[in-house]
Each structure stands twice: as structure tokens, then as C-alpha cells.
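Morning F.,

Quick status update on the modeling queue. The single chain you submitted on Monday has been processed. Sequence for confirmation:
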Amino acid sequence: MSKFTKDYIITMKDIVREGDPILRKETAEVPLPVSEEDRDTLACMMQYLKNSQDPKLARKYNLREGVGLSANQIGLDKRMFVMYFTDEKGKLHERAVVNPKIISHSTAMIYLPQSEGCLSVDRDIKGYVPRYERIKAKAFDENGEEFTVRLRGFAAIVFQHEFDHLNGVMFYDRINQTNPFKLPENVEINSL
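C-alpha cells below.
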């Protein structure tokens, strides 16, 4: 029985930090249909993101703001994550993602000029994290319904960041190790 029930409030003490082996492991597929326990966990994870973006609740519970959270970041070996944010065009993305697969992507790439952050990383890491500008992905939602989604810009970046977590990849693994502000060559790449 998971502690992540509907009423449980995830705080920073539940977030696994870099160095923990679960963050470097490829996570296990979630059995379908999605169990009630997994649905509760996803709801709990989503609530963390919403709480973290509410200044009053973030202060009350001492939460770092997040736009995405993967199951292994709360210590669970499961291929699932949640996203909650408003993109650069003002569209709200509120989505639970189970067993995702990226089925296609653009050749063009983008990056965040201020680098990326991560709830599991307590230090400030500078450098560009190149990501595909557009992706098409297939996954299941919290009810076990299959869906296909096309994402671009910030939404594509968040999806790829969380997808990497499920494969044991940290965002800074994608930063050029010799020159953190060097971008890939021979590819169209723009700042978001």
C-alpha cells in the first residue's frame, strides 16, 4: 500500500535528490488498466504541482515550484509522470502520463536560455539543454485511456525532461560537458 493516497500532501521531504540510484534507473512499465493506487499517486503528484505554484501554499509547505514530476522522483519505480503549467501561448497543460513513448520529433531544436531546473537537483546548474522543438507522443492517461499528443515549445521541453527521468537521464546529462553554453552544430536550434 502506497503512502501517496488522495489525502497525502507531497512536500520536498518526499522528493528524491540526485545521487539516489532510482533516478538513474529505467523505470518499469505501469500495468494496465491503471490501478486505483496508481491513480491516487498521480492525483497526489498533480496536487504537488498545483500547490507548488500557489504562492500561499508553497510558503506554507515550503515547496519548490515545479511544472512536472515523475514517479521515480518520489521513489517509485513506475513509468509515469504529471505535468501542470501554462505554456507561452497561455494554454493550460494538465496531464497525467503513463507508459509514454515519443513516436516522432522535429529535427529543429530549442533550449531555455536560463537552463532547466529540477526538483531533485538542489544546486544551480548553468548551461543549455538542447531539446526537440516539436514532439509527437503516445501514452495512457490516469484512466488507462490511450492518447496521442503533439507538443511544441515549452510543453515539448517539459515532456522530454520528465520522459528522460523515466529513462534514468538527468537534464544536465544533455549539457555539453566541455562548454555548457555550446549548442549542437549542423542543426537548427533556437532559444525559447
